[in-house]
Design brief:
Blueprint: E1 5-11, E2 14-21, E3 26-30, E4 53-57, H1 75-88, E5 94-99, H2 101-112, E6 117-123, H3 130-143, H4 146-160, H5 166-173, H6 194-207, E7 222-227, H7 234-242, E8 249-253, H8 260-263, H9 265-276
Parallel strand pairs: 3-4, 3-5, 5-6, 6-7, 7-8
Antiparallel strand pairs: 1-2, 2-4
Protein name: Alpha/beta hydrolase
Family: Belongs to the peptidase S33 family.
GO biological process, one term: proteolysis
Length: 281
């Protein structure tokens, strides 16, 4: 299978790591976190490279991309970076595959640049405003065992003092993101930039609201794929997203948590292949 190519692109004042694999119509992958990296998708989406050109990149301050001056991370800055990437790659319209926070970024970009978007595939979605992000945090905490809540608090205090890393926190949280803990062995352990996570997370809490701009999404095919045991269930995402966005569709994957790409890669690749290729979904 094509191992692809890797490059650091200088996009104005930022350095962005980009990995491309395969040939054909491009699909750009938007990773979650905030603060994670493109590696979340690998190797799970590689079968799509037999038919599409996969474009995976690390957002500002994430993975192998450069940091922003003064740690000025924000939702709108990521939208601006994605538009710079589109121009650099000379793509007229984008097919976006957004996961978790990446689904928010996909919607933000589409609302800002609707004429530059072909299709949106969202998974582990959050919603169209901060209500979903707040509800996600609430539901995650409600699922956690008391002992893990205590561990999480203690680790968070250590992180603030520089005595622990985000990896220690993820070790506590990760089992709650999957339907089956066996799926965790399929996850590539990628570092999470806590500064990016905190800055963009705060921005989402305080400023994320696409409700005034939803009509701008009306001409864009949007498919949302949610695990039936996701922290935000399909029923909740129907309320927070697909009922509000014109013509958006919702699919449910059985026996799956938040990380659909990791737990159900065969199903997700089939859905993506059909959706971006105009096949039956």
């Amino acid at each position: 299978m094509d191992k692809g190519s890797e490059v650091i692109l200088q996009l104005k004042d930022r350095r962005i790591f980009v990995k491309t694999i395969g040939e054909g119509e491009a699909i750009i992958f938007l990773h979650g976190g905030p603060g994670s990296s493109h590696q979340f998708f690998l190797p799970h989406v590689l079968p799509l490279s037999q038919h599409y050109k996969l474009v995976l990149y690390d957002q500002n301050g994430c993975g192998r991309s450069g940091s922003l001056r003064d740690n000025a991370y924000s939702m709108q800055d990521e939208v601006a970076t994605l538009e710079m990437l589109r121009q650099e790659l000379q793509l007229e319209k984008l097919n976006l595959f957004g996961e978790s926070w990446g689904s928010i970024l996909a919607l933000l970009y589409a609302a800002a640049h609707p004429k530059n978007v072909n299709k949106l595939l969202l998974t582990a979605a959050i919603g169209v405003d901060s209500k979903g992000y707040i509800e996600f945090q609430k539901q995650l905490l409600s699922r956690m065992k008391l002992v893990d809540k205590i561990k999480l608090f203690l680790v968070d205090e250590k992180i603030k003092k520089g005595k622990a890393s985000m990896e220690a926190m993820l070790k506590i949280l990760d089992p709650y993101y999957v339907y089956s803990k066996d799926a965790l062995q399929n996850k590539v352990q990628t570092p999470v930039n806590k500064v990016v996570n905190d800055r963009i997370g705060t921005d989402i809490n305080n400023h994320y609201d696409l409700t005034p701009a939803l009509q701008r999404l009306s001409s864009i095919p949007i498919l949302t794929v949610q695990g039936d045991h996701d922290i935000l269930t399909p029923a909740k995402i129907k309320e927070l997203l697909t009922d509000l966005v014109p013509d958006a569709r919702l699919m449910k994957i059985e026996n799956c948590g938040h990380w659909t790409v990791i737990e159900k890669p065969i199903e997700m690749n089939k859905i993506a292949y059909d959706f971006f290729g105009d096949g039956p979904v």
